[in-house]
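Q&A log
Question type: sequence-to-structure
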Amino acid sequence: MSTKGITTFGKRTTIALAIAGALGSVNGVSAAEAETQANEQTIEVIAVKGIRSSLKNSMADKKSASVVSDGISAEDLGKFPDLNVAESLQRITGVSIDRSGGEGQAVTVRGFGPQFNTVLVNGRQLATDSAGREFNFDILAADQITGANVYKTSSASMQEGGIGGTVDVTTARPFDYSGFQLVGSVKGMYESLSEEISPSVSGLISNTFNDETMGVLLAVSHQERQVQINQINTAGWRGGQTISNSRDGVLFTNAYIPRNWDQIVDQQDRTRTNGSLVFQYAPSDDVSITLDGFISKFEVDSEVTDLASWFEPDRVGNASIDPATGTLLTFSQDVGLHQGSGDPATDFVSHTRNSRDVTNSGVGLNVKWDITDQLKANFDVSNSNAENDRAGRDRFNVVGMTNSYEFDGTGGTPTVIHGGFENGNLPDAGLSRLHYNEKGNQFTDEDEITEFKADFEYSPDSLVFTKAKFGLYRQEREKSSYQIFGSQCQFCGYGTPAPNEAINFRPYTANNYFSGLIDTFYTYDGDAMVDYLAAEGYPITPTLQNNRYTINEDVSSLYMNFTFVYDVGDMPLTVDLGARYSTTDVEVSAVQSYISDVVPTSDATLFQNIYGPATNITQGTTYSNLLPSVNVKLDLQDDMVLRFAMYDSLTRPTMSQLSPATNFNEPRRQNLTASGGNPSLEPFRSENWDISYEWYYDDASIFSFAFFSKEVDDFIVTLTGDETYQMTDRTGPDFNCSTANSDLCSDPVVGTTEELNGQSEQYTVTRPRNGESARITGYEVALTHIFDNGFGVTANATVVDSNVTVDANSTQSFALEGLGNSQNLIVFYEQDNFQARVAFNNREGFLRQLDNGFNGEPINTETFGQWDISASYDITEHVSVFVEGINITEEELVQTGRFANQIYSVEDNGSRYSLGVRGKF
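Response status: OK
Response body:
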């Protein structure tokens, strides 16, 4: 077990402290006196709701914060601005989102992807169903959210872990509302691709009683969606290939050709059910106790129908190439021209790999205690669990027809024309042949987090030293992952006629598919295929795989933070300075079986891995960090704020990156690949500084500008490299694959197939590694203005840059994924009983993945802009109707490989429209 060094205050932090002290030496009394006088004034509160109220609340939070932050507030109880929390967060300056099925799922802050951002719910970190640390917002119902703040700089009292930022989502509490509250909504959602309407219902009831000393709140929501996702994609573009055929010999050398091409229709039934219950009790004016719990169930039943093609460089009949990039623009795969890879086949794939079965639950107890007039305490203990239970449950089936086809990438959307499928025609169904089948490709991921926090705030009798915060934090986290997998290749190679009647082999037409692409082909019942194989004596038998792991991570933190108030002339100056010390202990255990042989199947392009005995692996590490922070706030005028922040931050490695287990992928001809983790990874460490200016020039209007810089060390990058594994089942002198593992190893072709002979095999393996550094700089500009006639506008832009980037000609192995510029524009109208909003969110092109996990090539995402609309009308004081539209122009998400003419995927999620009624009593 290794122990890493402690990071300390840098030179810039020391300078910042000196500057703050010098500025504060001028007249340090009047600002505190003014604050005291303001607190003694009687304030009349007038309750308002709607867009204007939401903006004012967010601006008030931003102005009063000690750090650089932005937020969004619910327009009313049970009325969050968007259908999804992440969709609302993307309106915030510097925030972008990733989507799943057209829904916001994960957030990027200032160019740092989901793993770099700490997401809290009511100040607590929740377990997540993903394999990493990133939080999936699609499990949350927006109806139960009252607000969300994005903290872009850090203070010592904030939980460490987010170099990009910290997102804190708040939910309703009964003490937030006096007396009885009943809120509910019902709506129907129309999906433009599936042309289906699905229901959604939510309800929230809250009441306070016993002289407002007790309260209870219950919130329940249920949403269904019938989703269709259209997609075309490839596993990756293979570079350095020799393009040839048995008739003409070599056509091109050092060329790029896609590994495969899939035309996918993913039909999903999505069901989300959320429930939460909150009890609050205030036994005295000094004590408030909150006990709360929640449960969330999110199910995605996915059925993928796929017209697929597999490309081999040794059977290309005709081709054209882009001489500048070496990318094949057009080419054919022709029957009878292969040189060992076998004839091409049109594949009909049916699978359920995109399904999810997510359960989240949590319970927490919070006690706030005003121990004295000067000392306050906040104790919080919580536990949360998350599970995506998919091990052994998904299936993948392939039926095909030996066939020729042609790829054309010269148009806007690449096309593959399969012989016999032109103009809506279909070849004879009797040509269908059995091929490959499997169950259990996806893993079950489980996560549990237990947290304890004790926070104290002391307010001394001083006009300069106004506040001290100190406390401790403890988190115990266990994350595990396992796979239950089985495959059946008895009929691989397209040699056995498919039982068309038994599997309901039939024509299929994709509705609202990409224009110009084949939309009529064959499909079948994949579950019936599994039953057929079992009836024939060749069942798919999934077994627990020896690639599972469990990670235990314990974090202990202490912090102190001090607040000083001065005057610089007549300008109040607030200085927050402090430090957080954190120790992280990681223990990783895994069960691993390594490859002992690679054997052939009846498909010339597909092999089978043979594994040796299981090995138990246990590793661990410990590291400690000291994270100083300084936040300076200068009130230039009553409506102008200037901020400066300097702080250190860290992000721990993604949980799955710490796994020592290696996952060996399906072995293919010229394509032995695997992926694994690295339990010795250290955290990302960053030194940061920010300057921001805020001008609150009207009641609900603001102009702000911020500049930021982050210098990140020990950057973790996932790289592809060659690793050699000994084939222990093979014996000399030829070291051919063992006939004890497969009778096919006696075939003479084994001696000429490099993957099937030799004492060792070389796998292309992706693993995360530390070591790189990066500097990220950027600026944000935002404007919100409300006119007297009820109209208003919000516009913001974020521009980010880095000293490490990847372009088409780069050979470097490091760059920041997710880094890109973004813009938002919202125009709204609110008058009397009517309000309407039009929103545009644009995320410019960025590097999605430095390494595609297939062959080390990058994936780039092109610029994506989305238009959303919403409107509501208050029929009475208690009842309103509303309409919402998401992605109304039906924009498509496009990703490319290294070059722009290497299309990696095109995804169409269509648009969504909702019509509903909301009531509040």
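Response note: The longest strand covers residues 607-637.
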